[in-house]
Write a structure and sequence with these properties.
The structure is a single chain. By secondary structure, this protein is α/β, with parallel strands linked by helices. About 40% of the residues are buried. Helix 7 links the parallel strand 16 and strand 17. It has 2 domains: about 280 residues, Alpha-Beta Horseshoe (Leucine-rich repeat, LRR (right-handed beta-alpha superhelix)), CATH 3.80.10.10; about 180 residues, Toll/interleukin-1 receptor homology (TIR) domain (Rossmann fold, 3-Layer(aba) Sandwich). The strands form 4 sheets. An 11-stranded parallel β-sheet has the order 1-2-4-6-7-8-10-12-13-14-15. Strands 17-16-18-19-20 form a 5-stranded parallel β-sheet, with helices on both faces. Strands 3-5 form a two-stranded parallel sheet. It is built from 13 helices and 20 strands. It comes from Nibea albiflora (Yellow drum). This is Toll-like receptor 6.
Length: about 500
């Protein structure tokens, strides 16, 4: 089964729906000013969020009461020390987030010796001076996603993971990072993600290694240096990378057109760009002609008439919906999905929603998507969860087998205690699979000022990510469903699905 961090976005609402049966499997103790791991954690805890606290040290025995723990988030704390036997009591631990702390030595992370079941490890944004990985990293034979960051990266730093077959290596770089050419030669990964800080240029040698060693290369937060990037691509005779991703970028129109033309003349087969800000768009100069009164007055009258008709007939809404539908259809035609990306995918979408909105989901959403006019395969917990499995296992399986995750947003969403925890994983899903892996349906107006500040992931997604609004006017429903179906449509293997078995 392919582990994907982002699969946990679906827990957001299912936790609410099923918490009566399994109330203690998901525990959120984030933002509670904790200075140590709580001693009253439920024995059944499988997922634990301790982010945004003030924990400075982890001790042996901190997790002795949580033998079923699989997901642990201790990011945004003040961690400086972790006892080597901290995770002795958590043999099932798969996902560990220690980012944004004060750890100082990547050569001395001995607690990893008792975490050999890890699939995902995030050590980005700590105080590491060098990227030299200690011998304990060699024990992480199951590791698939690794995120790191350091001020200096040298040849030999990754020799202790030379035998580890990663899917994704993420380098979170600081300003003025020192990179030695050839430092990544010991890394065996499908994809390299390079996350830059604001206004940081990518290192020439690092880019060269990325293009020559990895099938997929993703550049995140790239603001400047596009001319250098284009010139380097143009100068290279051989490029191993076949898929290039640009995520959360800002670029001038002239740089973009030049960059695209350069890429078209290389061996790169796929170019993806998401969350793009275009600057200095071209403007065509036109002659200014004086309009006579006989022309101006009728023009003003016609403009006023059009504005009145637009207001009464709600033309802007129809135009927005038609535009979204057109964009969805265009993306579906232009986006080349590789066959390997659809391995194991059985559903077009996994639906996540609040229990308060269940009637709308069951009576409107699912019939219109799965019915004769929709023809989509929708995964939802009532039908596809397997009895005997834990909530977490069912959620992992469900979202792994779904092409996209569909969120039904409402006022109940922001009142949920699970929201902050689950959106953390949703943000990883967008990075791992692309921004179109998440579809947002706004069931009712949700102004950003009503969203609590701790739900910053939701605010970011709503400000950057196109969402589809549910219209109260029944005359608009047909266009709404057409738009939503277009956003979810994909050519999936025609495999009959009855339940989600391993």
């Amino acid at each position: 089964m392919r582990p994907t961090i982002a699969l946990w976005a679906a827990v957001l609402f299912l936790g609410l729906q099923l918490s009566a049966s399994f109330p203690d499997s998901i525990v959120d103790r984030s933002s509670q000013n904790l200075t140590s791991v709580p001693g009253d954690l439920p024995h059944t805890t499988e997922s634990l969020d301790l982010s945004c606290n003030h924990i400075q040290k982890l001790h042996r025995g901190d997790f002795r009461n949580t033998p079923l723990l699989r997901f642990l988030n201790i990011s945004w704390n003040s961690l400086e020390e972790i006892d080597p036997e901290t995770f002795l009591d958590t043999p099932l631990l798969e996902d560990l987030d220690l980012s944004h702390n004060r750890l100082k030595n990547l050569s001395d992370q001995r607690y990893l010796l008792h975490a050999d079941n890890l699939l995902v490890l995030n050590l980005a944004c700590n105080k590491f001076l060098t990227m030299t990985l200690g011998s304990e990293f060699s024990s992480l034979v199951k590791l698939e996603r690794l995120a790191l960051g350091a001020k200096n990266i040298s040849v030999g730093d990754f020799k202790n993971i030379a035998e580890v077959k990663l899917h994704t290596l993420t380098l979170s770089l600081e300003d003025n990072v020192g990179y030695e050419a050839g430092s990544l030669k010991d890394v065996h990964a499908q994809k390299l993600q390079i996350a830059l800080t604001r206004n940081q240029k990518i290192d020439h040698d690092l880019l060269a290694d990325g293009l020559s060693l990895f099938v997929e290369l993703e550049l995140i937060n790239l603001i400047k240096g596009y001319e250098d990037l284009s010139n380097q691509l143009k100068a290279r005779k051989e490029i191993y990378t076949s898929s290039l991703y640009l995520t959360n970028i800002s670029i001038k129109w002239t740089h973009l057109t030049y960059f695209v033309n350069v890429v078209l003349n290389t061996s790169i087969a796929h170019l993806y760009a998401t969350d793009v800000v275009l600057n200095e768009l071209p403007q065509r100069d036109t002659d200014v002609v004086r309009a006579t009164t006989t022309i101006l007055c009728p023009a003003v009258a016609i403009a006023l008439l059009i504005m009145i008709l637009c207001h009464r007939l709600d033309v802007p809404w129809y135009m927005r919906m038609i535009w979204k539908w057109t964009r969805a259809k265009h993306r579906a035609r232009m986006r080349q999905v590789r066959p390997e990306d659809l391995v194991g995918i059985e559903f077009h979408a996994f639906v996540s929603y609040s229990q308060h909105d269940a009637d709308w989901v069951h009576n409107s959403l699912i019939p219109n998507l799965e019915g004769p006019s929709g023809g989509l395969r929708i995964c939802h917990h009532e039908k596809h969860f397997v009895a005997g499995k834990t909530i977490i296992e069912n959620i992992i399986t469900s979202v792994e087998k779904s092409r996209r995750s569909l969120f039904v947003l409402s006022a109940h969403f922001v009142k949920s205690e699970w929201c902050h925890y689950e959106l953390y994983f949703a943000s990883h899903q967008r990075l791992a699979q692309g921004s179109d892996s998440v579809v947002l349906v706004l069931l009712e107006p949700l102004p950003q000022y009503l969203i609590p500040s701790k739900y910053y992931q939701l605010k970011s997604m709503m400000s950057r990510h196109t969402y589809i609004e549910w219209p109260q006017d029944r005359a608009k429903h047909r266009l709404f469903w057409a738009n939503l179906r277009a956003a979810l449509q994909a050519d999936l293997p025609n495999a009959p699905v009855t339940e989600l078995e391993d």
